[in-house]
């Protein structure tokens, strides 16, 4: 039994779970979350159902969420509450058709700024990534080794892609990859359990929320190059003490060769790096933002251009071994 509560809840900070009402993978996760614990029904927001539990809100949106821009601002205008983060339970589509469980941040920073993004977002930019990406990825991998879903699901991070445009950190947590598995209730319950515990809806402390004081100086990784399923971030993201920011595939770093040798290359590669860096800094205040590049994904002149630009940003570019060495040195700190 749900109780209707007043729309205006006061000046409080909340996490918003944005559900697509036409996506069975999204609604299944939402249904599972509401079965795990008692949620209170709010008055409709923009005529759409909304619920609350503790400091978390759930909003059932009428269609695809890829173009539901400014959700935090809209929630604030409707309720007076400040949204600090948005979680999107969703489906994942892939031509391979393999069953999968994935996590990813959002953005379309590689597009020309005057281009209309085909799958939502703000062309040439990216919202801040959720600080929970690494911890939830670690939990997804750990738990997937001990759960039986009736069929084998691949697990992976995905690189930054698609919309909507937001002003607060977010992540997508998805069941893939075709209609054959989008409605898989076991997979939805598995992911919903991560959301439930990760946000502290079970009464615990949750996990993955960045604390600028306690986490100051901790390494936050942005990856450059590679395929859509972020192999570099998949491996490094399992390391304790490392946070994950944006992940840019090779296609998100478009280069055009310079007309004269020694000139800076053209293309939107620099725009992509700047947007990823700016958004990750916003999500992880006082974090130690580092980059790691898939050298095989780029030609020599492209690699050098990236190195030169990261020097201007004063952002370290580390190999995988360098990232691991940094983590080891952090573990040895006594401050």
> How do the strands line up in the largest sheet?
2-3-4-1-5-8-6-7
N-to-C order of helices and strands: EHEEEHEEHEEHHEHEHEHH
Q: What is the CATH-assigned architecture of the largest domain? A: 3-Layer(aba) Sandwich
Helices and strands: which structural class?
Answer: alpha/beta
Helix fraction?
25-40%
Q: Look at the structure and give the CATH class of the largest domain.
A: Alpha Beta
The global form is: globular
Query: Distance between termini?
Result: 50 Å
Give the rounded overall mean pLDDT: 95
Low-confidence stretches: 1-7
Number of helices: 9
Strand content: 15-25%
| Major β-sheet annotation | 8 strands, mixed
Rg computed from alpha carbons, rounded to a whole number of angstroms: 20 Å
State the oligomer. single chain
What would you give as the CATH superfamily of the largest domain? AF0625-like
What keywords describe this structure?
9 helices, 335 residues, 2 domains, globular, eight-stranded mixed β-sheet, disordered N terminus, Aminopeptidase, alpha/beta, Rossmann fold, 30% helix
